[in-house]
Design brief:
Blueprint: E1 15-17, H1 19-25, E2 29-33, H2 45-58, E3 63-69, H3 73-85, E4 88-94, H4 102-109, E5 113-117, H5 125-140, E6 145-148, H6 155-176, E7 182-187, H7 191-202, E8 208-213, H8 218-236, E9 246-249, H9 262-275, H10 284-297, E10 305-309, H11 313-318, H12 320-326, H13 329-333
Parallel strand pairs: 2-10, 3-4, 3-6, 4-5, 7-8, 7-10, 8-9
Antiparallel strand pairs: 1-2
Helix pairs in contact: 2-3, 2-6, 3-4, 6-7, 6-8, 7-8, 9-10
Bound molecules: pyridoxal-5'-phosphate (PLP).
Amino acid sequence: MTPRRIALGCWPTPFEPAPRLSAALGREIWFKREDLAGAALGGNKIRQLEWLLGEALAEGADAVLTTAGAQSNFCRALAGSAAKLGLACTLVLRGPPPPRQGNLLLDALFGAEIRFVECADPWDPSLAAALEEAASSLRARGHRPYLIHLPGVSAPLAAQAWAVAAEELDADWRAAGIDPATLVVAAGSGLTAAGLALGLARLARRCQVRAVSVQQPADRLGPWMVSVARRAAERAGWAVPPMLPLVIDDSWIGPGYAIPSEESLAAVVRVARSEGVALDPAYTGKAMAGLIGALHEGVLPEGPVVFLHSGGLPGLFAAADTVAAAATPEVAQA
Ligand SMILES: Cc1ncc(COP(=O)(O)O)c(C=O)c1O
């Protein structure tokens, strides 16, 4: 089935040079400002939601349901997009209820129903049961819920959204007159980077997608991303590329998923002070630490580097004390 894509964001998102960071790092660096995607405080989930919610509406749903961590950017983007479309939204969030800050504050503001499940990780079976219970409760209230599970049933369509987005990047690069060798992307579930690698392969671009993992080891993330890209291509009716231009770097996860690392905090401060651009410590800060680290190690191919700013700004406020402690002149010089 070809889902109907609906309009949520403002496209194209800005594509801009990062001149002071480029001068400091000795390499031409550009930012793709997906943080400015223009709906529900932006980020890389808006393009995916244009497709996923298009499918939900095509199936006659009037409610959406998903699960993630308490500070999920995806849940916030879903809650805001659902509000915009007049859909009910239920979020099943992992862990004991934390303070209502950052994304969690926005979830509530956008009117989502929030349920907490105390479980260890995203693969815990109690989550599936909690989702089923939330879906039953929506049905009992007369709703027709559509389940979005990014690392599950929704993965191929979410990756397809980013494969299509590669065409926008291609147009950006042509307009700027550059031929980037590397596109650096923060990878959680890896769907964004997998989709981009698929899209760039379809366009026969020489650019390599460098997925900086914020959660999973490369030996688990890599095969999953390749399989999702293949399923996205099959679903879209495209030829499956024999090779994906994809490199996975899992050396910047630091103390753990969503826990700021020293390097990610230093990268957040550095980019804020050199370009006036705010990153977040859990995703884009770690991806930028990976970009800087790869340049220092000399492992990036010659040519301009594009950094996908995938959003996540509310997470900066949820980690306010840690970020404030890092924002000292000493860290800025690091
Ligand atoms: C701000 C931000 N950047 C990057 C990612 C990673 O995207 P993906 O899960 O498609 O790898 C996420 C995922 O939640 C995110 O919130």
